[in-house]
Amino acid sequence: MKFNKVIILLFIVLFVGGCSNINLNKEITEPELKEYKDVPKVFFCPQDDCEGELFKIINSAKESVHCAFYDFDLERSINILDKKSKTMDIKLVVDDANFDNVKHLKFAKKDSSSGLMHNKFCIIDDKIILTGSFNPTENGAYKNNNNLIIIESFYLSRNYEDEFNELWNSEFRKGNNVIYPEFYLNNKKIENYFCPEDNCAYYVAEEIKKAKNNIYFMTFSFTNSRIATAIILKHYQGLNIKGVFEARQVSKYSKFKLLEYQGIDVKKDNNKANMHHKVFIIDNKTVITGSFNPTAGADTRNDENILIIHDKNIANIFLQEFERVYNQEPSGAK
Fold first, then answer.
1. Is there a catalytic annotation at residue 278?
2. Is residue 100 annotated as part of the catalytic site, yes or no?
3. Is 118 a catalytic residue?
4. Residue 24's pLDDT is what?
5. Which residues of the chain have pLDDT under 70?
6. What pLDDT does 127 receive?
7. Model confidence, pTM
8. What is the 3-class SS of the chain, one letter each residue?
9. How far is CA 240 from each of CA 15, 217, 263, 289, rounded to the nearest angstrom?
10. Is residue 27 situated within a structural domain?
Protein backbone atom coordinates (compact mmCIF):
# COMPACT_ATOMS: atom_id res chain seq x y z
CA MET A 1 0.00 0.00 0.00
CA LYS A 2 2.82 2.40 0.92
CA PHE A 3 4.52 1.57 -2.41
CA ASN A 4 1.33 2.40 -4.33
CA LYS A 5 1.04 5.74 -2.53
CA VAL A 6 4.61 6.60 -3.50
CA ILE A 7 3.88 5.75 -7.14
CA ILE A 8 0.73 7.89 -7.10
CA LEU A 9 2.60 10.77 -5.47
CA LEU A 10 5.36 10.59 -8.10
CA PHE A 11 2.75 10.56 -10.85
CA ILE A 12 1.09 13.67 -9.44
CA VAL A 13 4.43 15.51 -9.17
CA LEU A 14 5.39 14.58 -12.71
CA PHE A 15 1.97 15.50 -14.06
CA VAL A 16 1.85 18.88 -12.34
CA GLY A 17 5.44 19.64 -13.29
CA GLY A 18 4.76 18.68 -16.88
CA CYS A 19 1.68 20.87 -17.02
CA SER A 20 3.80 23.97 -16.51
CA ASN A 21 5.21 23.44 -20.02
CA ILE A 22 1.89 22.86 -21.73
CA ASN A 23 1.10 25.51 -24.36
CA LEU A 24 -2.44 26.47 -23.46
CA ASN A 25 -2.54 28.69 -26.54
CA LYS A 26 -1.43 26.03 -29.03
CA GLU A 27 -4.55 26.66 -31.14
CA ILE A 28 -3.07 29.89 -32.46
CA THR A 29 -0.84 27.94 -34.84
CA GLU A 30 -3.52 25.60 -36.18
CA PRO A 31 -4.43 25.96 -39.87
CA GLU A 32 -8.10 26.77 -39.30
CA LEU A 33 -7.13 30.06 -37.64
CA LYS A 34 -5.13 31.35 -40.63
CA GLU A 35 -7.96 33.59 -41.83
CA TYR A 36 -7.61 37.35 -41.84
CA LYS A 37 -9.15 39.85 -44.20
CA ASP A 38 -6.29 42.31 -44.55
CA VAL A 39 -2.54 42.41 -45.12
CA PRO A 40 0.02 44.66 -43.48
CA LYS A 41 0.21 48.15 -44.96
CA VAL A 42 3.73 49.59 -45.01
CA PHE A 43 4.77 53.24 -45.30
CA PHE A 44 8.19 54.87 -45.32
CA CYS A 45 8.87 58.35 -44.05
CA PRO A 46 9.58 60.96 -45.30
CA GLN A 47 8.60 59.95 -48.85
CA ASP A 48 5.21 58.61 -47.69
CA ASP A 49 2.77 60.67 -45.68
CA CYS A 50 3.34 59.03 -42.29
CA GLU A 51 1.69 61.88 -40.43
CA GLY A 52 -1.38 61.61 -42.64
CA GLU A 53 -1.60 57.86 -42.16
CA LEU A 54 -1.37 58.26 -38.38
CA PHE A 55 -4.09 60.89 -38.38
CA LYS A 56 -6.27 58.80 -40.68
CA ILE A 57 -6.08 55.68 -38.53
CA ILE A 58 -6.74 57.61 -35.30
CA ASN A 59 -9.62 59.48 -36.90
CA SER A 60 -11.17 56.17 -38.01
CA ALA A 61 -11.49 54.95 -34.41
CA LYS A 62 -15.01 54.23 -33.24
CA GLU A 63 -14.41 53.04 -29.67
CA SER A 64 -10.82 53.28 -28.44
CA VAL A 65 -7.26 54.39 -29.12
CA HIS A 66 -4.40 53.27 -26.87
CA CYS A 67 -0.93 54.56 -27.84
CA ALA A 68 2.58 54.25 -26.42
CA PHE A 69 5.04 56.70 -27.99
CA TYR A 70 8.60 57.57 -27.07
CA ASP A 71 7.99 61.06 -28.48
CA PHE A 72 4.88 62.80 -29.82
CA ASP A 73 4.55 66.37 -31.09
CA LEU A 74 2.30 66.20 -34.18
CA GLU A 75 -0.42 68.70 -33.25
CA ARG A 76 -3.06 67.45 -35.66
CA SER A 77 -2.95 63.94 -34.20
CA ILE A 78 -2.72 65.24 -30.63
CA ASN A 79 -5.79 67.39 -31.23
CA ILE A 80 -7.87 64.58 -32.73
CA LEU A 81 -7.02 62.35 -29.77
CA ASP A 82 -8.08 65.13 -27.42
CA LYS A 83 -11.34 65.57 -29.30
CA LYS A 84 -12.10 61.85 -29.31
CA SER A 85 -11.32 61.57 -25.60
CA LYS A 86 -14.64 63.31 -24.89
CA THR A 87 -16.60 60.29 -26.14
CA MET A 88 -14.14 57.39 -26.46
CA ASP A 89 -11.61 55.40 -24.47
CA ILE A 90 -8.39 57.28 -25.26
CA LYS A 91 -5.14 56.52 -23.42
CA LEU A 92 -1.59 57.64 -24.10
CA VAL A 93 1.79 56.76 -22.53
CA VAL A 94 4.85 58.86 -23.43
CA ASP A 95 8.45 58.67 -22.26
CA ASP A 96 9.13 61.11 -19.44
CA ALA A 97 11.86 62.88 -21.43
CA ASN A 98 9.27 63.99 -23.99
CA PHE A 99 6.18 64.34 -21.82
CA ASP A 100 5.98 68.15 -21.91
CA ASN A 101 4.34 68.06 -25.36
CA VAL A 102 1.33 66.16 -24.00
CA LYS A 103 1.25 67.00 -20.29
CA HIS A 104 -1.94 69.04 -20.81
CA LEU A 105 -3.85 65.92 -21.90
CA LYS A 106 -5.93 64.30 -19.15
CA PHE A 107 -5.59 60.89 -20.78
CA ALA A 108 -1.76 60.97 -20.95
CA LYS A 109 0.72 59.34 -18.57
CA LYS A 110 4.51 59.37 -18.53
CA ASP A 111 6.84 56.49 -17.81
CA SER A 112 8.64 56.34 -14.49
CA SER A 113 11.55 54.05 -15.32
CA SER A 114 15.27 54.72 -15.57
CA GLY A 115 15.23 53.19 -19.06
CA LEU A 116 13.33 54.46 -22.08
CA MET A 117 9.69 53.82 -22.87
CA HIS A 118 10.80 53.57 -26.48
CA ASN A 119 7.71 52.05 -28.12
CA LYS A 120 5.93 53.55 -31.11
CA PHE A 121 2.56 51.78 -31.31
CA CYS A 122 -1.20 52.21 -31.15
CA ILE A 123 -4.12 49.82 -30.79
CA ILE A 124 -7.24 51.07 -32.56
CA ASP A 125 -10.67 49.65 -31.59
CA ASP A 126 -9.03 46.49 -30.20
CA LYS A 127 -8.27 45.22 -33.70
CA ILE A 128 -5.83 47.42 -35.63
CA ILE A 129 -2.15 47.80 -34.73
CA LEU A 130 0.13 50.62 -35.80
CA THR A 131 3.85 50.12 -35.12
CA GLY A 132 7.34 50.47 -36.61
CA SER A 133 10.23 52.88 -36.07
CA PHE A 134 8.15 56.04 -36.61
CA ASN A 135 8.04 58.50 -33.72
CA PRO A 136 5.03 60.78 -34.45
CA THR A 137 7.08 63.98 -34.51
CA GLU A 138 7.90 66.58 -37.15
CA ASN A 139 11.38 65.10 -37.52
CA GLY A 140 10.04 61.54 -37.54
CA ALA A 141 7.55 62.31 -40.29
CA TYR A 142 9.45 64.75 -42.50
CA LYS A 143 13.21 64.33 -41.97
CA ASN A 144 14.16 60.93 -40.59
CA ASN A 145 14.06 57.61 -42.43
CA ASN A 146 11.33 55.57 -40.72
CA ASN A 147 8.84 52.81 -41.34
CA LEU A 148 5.22 52.59 -40.28
CA ILE A 149 3.20 49.35 -40.39
CA ILE A 150 -0.57 49.04 -39.97
CA ILE A 151 -2.01 45.55 -39.42
CA GLU A 152 -5.49 44.34 -38.60
CA SER A 153 -5.16 41.28 -36.35
CA PHE A 154 -6.93 39.78 -33.37
CA TYR A 155 -3.74 38.23 -32.02
CA LEU A 156 -1.56 41.30 -32.36
CA SER A 157 -4.23 43.45 -30.75
CA ARG A 158 -4.28 41.10 -27.75
CA ASN A 159 -0.48 41.19 -27.51
CA TYR A 160 -0.17 44.94 -27.77
CA GLU A 161 -3.13 45.64 -25.51
CA ASP A 162 -1.62 43.42 -22.81
CA GLU A 163 1.68 45.30 -23.15
CA PHE A 164 -0.08 48.66 -23.15
CA ASN A 165 -1.95 47.82 -19.95
CA GLU A 166 1.35 47.05 -18.25
CA LEU A 167 2.71 50.45 -19.28
CA TRP A 168 -0.50 52.21 -18.29
CA ASN A 169 -0.25 50.58 -14.86
CA SER A 170 3.38 51.71 -14.51
CA GLU A 171 4.87 48.24 -15.01
CA PHE A 172 7.90 49.45 -16.93
CA ARG A 173 10.88 47.25 -17.84
CA LYS A 174 8.96 44.15 -16.74
CA GLY A 175 5.74 42.25 -17.29
CA ASN A 176 4.30 39.03 -18.65
CA ASN A 177 5.70 37.24 -21.65
CA VAL A 178 3.87 37.90 -24.89
CA ILE A 179 0.55 36.03 -25.09
CA TYR A 180 0.71 34.99 -28.76
CA PRO A 181 4.39 34.94 -29.81
CA GLU A 182 3.51 33.60 -33.25
CA PHE A 183 0.43 33.28 -35.41
CA TYR A 184 -0.62 33.37 -39.06
CA LEU A 185 -1.96 36.30 -41.04
CA ASN A 186 -3.21 35.31 -44.51
CA ASN A 187 -1.19 32.11 -44.17
CA LYS A 188 1.98 34.10 -43.45
CA LYS A 189 3.72 33.60 -40.12
CA ILE A 190 4.18 36.62 -37.86
CA GLU A 191 6.13 36.68 -34.59
CA ASN A 192 5.78 39.40 -31.95
CA TYR A 193 7.94 40.08 -28.90
CA PHE A 194 8.39 42.79 -26.27
CA CYS A 195 11.58 43.79 -24.45
CA PRO A 196 12.89 43.26 -21.93
CA GLU A 197 10.62 40.42 -20.85
CA ASP A 198 10.77 38.47 -24.13
CA ASN A 199 14.52 38.82 -24.81
CA CYS A 200 14.21 40.49 -28.21
CA ALA A 201 17.91 40.20 -29.08
CA TYR A 202 17.69 36.42 -28.76
CA TYR A 203 14.93 36.19 -31.37
CA VAL A 204 16.69 38.59 -33.75
CA ALA A 205 19.92 36.57 -33.50
CA GLU A 206 18.07 33.27 -33.94
CA GLU A 207 16.41 34.55 -37.10
CA ILE A 208 19.78 35.68 -38.46
CA LYS A 209 21.19 32.21 -37.76
CA LYS A 210 18.55 30.73 -40.08
CA ALA A 211 19.70 32.86 -43.04
CA LYS A 212 20.78 30.89 -46.13
CA ASN A 213 21.56 33.54 -48.75
CA ASN A 214 21.57 37.17 -47.66
CA ILE A 215 21.08 39.61 -44.79
CA TYR A 216 20.45 43.33 -45.24
CA PHE A 217 19.98 45.70 -42.34
CA MET A 218 19.38 49.36 -41.48
CA THR A 219 20.04 50.32 -37.87
CA PHE A 220 19.93 53.61 -36.01
CA SER A 221 22.07 52.23 -33.18
CA PHE A 222 23.83 48.85 -33.16
CA THR A 223 25.92 47.76 -30.16
CA ASN A 224 24.58 44.27 -29.41
CA SER A 225 27.33 41.61 -29.42
CA ARG A 226 25.05 38.60 -29.83
CA ILE A 227 23.47 39.96 -33.00
CA ALA A 228 26.83 41.17 -34.38
CA THR A 229 28.36 37.72 -33.79
CA ALA A 230 25.46 36.02 -35.59
CA ILE A 231 26.04 38.30 -38.60
CA ILE A 232 29.80 37.71 -38.64
CA LEU A 233 29.33 33.94 -38.59
CA LYS A 234 26.98 34.19 -41.55
CA HIS A 235 29.53 36.33 -43.36
CA TYR A 236 32.12 33.56 -42.96
CA GLN A 237 29.58 31.10 -44.33
CA GLY A 238 29.60 33.13 -47.54
CA LEU A 239 26.29 34.96 -47.29
CA ASN A 240 25.77 38.31 -48.98
CA ILE A 241 25.52 40.88 -46.17
CA LYS A 242 25.03 44.65 -46.40
CA GLY A 243 24.25 47.14 -43.65
CA VAL A 244 23.56 50.84 -43.20
CA PHE A 245 24.29 52.56 -39.88
CA GLU A 246 23.07 55.97 -38.76
CA ALA A 247 26.26 58.02 -39.06
CA ARG A 248 25.82 59.93 -35.79
CA GLN A 249 25.55 56.70 -33.82
CA VAL A 250 28.84 55.21 -35.02
CA SER A 251 30.76 55.53 -31.76
CA LYS A 252 33.34 53.41 -29.95
CA TYR A 253 30.45 51.23 -28.75
CA SER A 254 29.00 50.70 -32.22
CA LYS A 255 29.53 47.43 -34.09
CA PHE A 256 30.27 49.35 -37.29
CA LYS A 257 34.06 49.08 -37.03
CA LEU A 258 33.91 45.42 -35.99
CA LEU A 259 31.77 44.42 -38.96
CA GLU A 260 33.82 46.56 -41.33
CA TYR A 261 37.04 44.95 -40.06
CA GLN A 262 35.56 41.50 -40.75
CA GLY A 263 35.08 42.52 -44.39
CA ILE A 264 31.31 43.02 -44.23
CA ASP A 265 29.81 45.65 -46.53
CA VAL A 266 28.66 48.31 -44.07
CA LYS A 267 28.30 52.03 -44.62
CA LYS A 268 27.14 55.16 -42.84
CA ASP A 269 23.90 56.74 -43.98
CA ASN A 270 23.72 59.99 -45.96
CA ASN A 271 20.55 61.48 -44.51
CA LYS A 272 21.22 64.96 -43.13
CA ALA A 273 18.78 64.08 -40.34
CA ASN A 274 18.57 60.52 -38.94
CA MET A 275 18.40 57.11 -40.56
CA HIS A 276 16.06 55.83 -37.86
CA HIS A 277 15.11 52.34 -39.14
CA LYS A 278 15.60 49.23 -37.01
CA VAL A 279 15.24 46.68 -39.79
CA PHE A 280 16.72 43.30 -40.78
CA ILE A 281 15.75 41.63 -44.07
CA ILE A 282 16.67 37.96 -44.31
CA ASP A 283 16.76 35.81 -47.48
CA ASN A 284 14.36 38.22 -49.22
CA LYS A 285 11.48 36.69 -47.30
CA THR A 286 11.65 37.73 -43.64
CA VAL A 287 11.55 41.22 -42.12
CA ILE A 288 12.34 42.20 -38.54
CA THR A 289 11.19 45.68 -37.54
CA GLY A 290 9.72 47.67 -34.67
CA SER A 291 11.12 50.05 -32.06
CA PHE A 292 14.03 47.76 -31.08
CA ASN A 293 17.53 49.01 -31.85
CA PRO A 294 20.03 46.12 -31.60
CA THR A 295 21.62 47.41 -28.40
CA ALA A 296 22.09 46.07 -24.89
CA GLY A 297 19.97 48.89 -23.50
CA ALA A 298 17.07 48.16 -25.80
CA ASP A 299 17.20 44.49 -24.88
CA THR A 300 17.46 44.85 -21.10
CA ARG A 301 16.55 48.38 -19.97
CA ASN A 302 13.95 49.79 -22.35
CA ASP A 303 10.34 49.00 -23.18
CA GLU A 304 10.40 47.95 -26.84
CA ASN A 305 8.58 45.81 -29.38
CA ILE A 306 9.47 43.86 -32.52
CA LEU A 307 7.66 42.09 -35.33
CA ILE A 308 9.18 39.26 -37.36
CA ILE A 309 7.16 39.01 -40.57
CA HIS A 310 7.66 35.95 -42.77
CA ASP A 311 6.26 37.26 -46.05
CA LYS A 312 8.11 37.66 -49.36
CA ASN A 313 5.87 40.50 -50.50
CA ILE A 314 6.50 42.53 -47.35
CA ALA A 315 10.21 41.69 -47.55
CA ASN A 316 10.29 43.01 -51.12
CA ILE A 317 8.76 46.31 -49.99
CA PHE A 318 11.44 46.69 -47.32
CA LEU A 319 14.17 45.68 -49.80
CA GLN A 320 13.21 48.61 -51.99
CA GLU A 321 13.59 50.95 -49.02
CA PHE A 322 16.94 49.36 -48.14
CA GLU A 323 18.24 49.88 -51.66
CA ARG A 324 17.10 53.50 -51.61
CA VAL A 325 18.80 54.21 -48.27
CA TYR A 326 21.93 52.22 -49.16
CA ASN A 327 22.36 54.06 -52.47
CA GLN A 328 21.42 57.52 -51.21
CA GLU A 329 23.97 60.11 -52.27
CA PRO A 330 25.46 62.51 -49.74
CA SER A 331 23.52 65.75 -49.43
CA GLY A 332 24.72 68.19 -52.07
CA ALA A 333 26.25 65.47 -54.28
CA LYS A 334 25.54 65.63 -58.02
1. yes
2. no
3. no
4. 37
5. 1-38, 331-334
6. 94
7. 0.88
8. CHHHHHHHHHHHHHHHHHHCCCCCCHHHHCHHHCCCCCCCEEEEECCCCHHHHHHHHHHCCCCEEEEEECCCCCHHHHHHHHHHCCCCEEEEEECHHHHHHCCCCCCEEECCCCCCECCEEEEECCCEEEEECCCCCHHHHHCCEEEEEEEECHHHHHHHHHHHHHHHCCCCCCCCCCCCCEEEECCEEEEEEEECCCCHHHHHHHHHHCCCCEEEEEECCCCCHHHHHHHHHHHHCCCEEEEEECHHHCCCCCCHHHHHHCCCEEEECCCCCCECCEEEEECCCEEEEECCCCCHHHHHCCEEEEEEEECHHHHHHHHHHHHHHHCCCCCCCC
9. 48, 11, 11, 20
10. no
What single-letter amino acid sits at 265? D
User: What pLDDT score does 113 carry?
Assistant: 83
Q: Name the catalytic one among 120, 234, 276, 310.
A: 276
- pLDDT for 329 equals 83
CATH assignment of the domain containing 306? 3.30.870.10
Q: What pLDDT score does 139 carry?
A: 98
Given 48, 89, 96, 283, which residue is catalytic?
Answer: 283
Please check whether residue 7 lies inside any domain of the structure.
Answer: no
pLDDT of residue 330: 79
Total domains in the chain come to: 1
Q: Which residues form the domain of 191?
A: 36-326
Residue 6 belongs to some domain of the structure: no
What is the tens place of the pLDDT at every residue in 77-90?
Answer: 999 999 999 999 99
Catalytic one among 71, 278, 299, 311?
278
Identify whether 8 is part of a domain. no
Choose among 287, 300, 121: nearest CA to 204.
Answer: 287
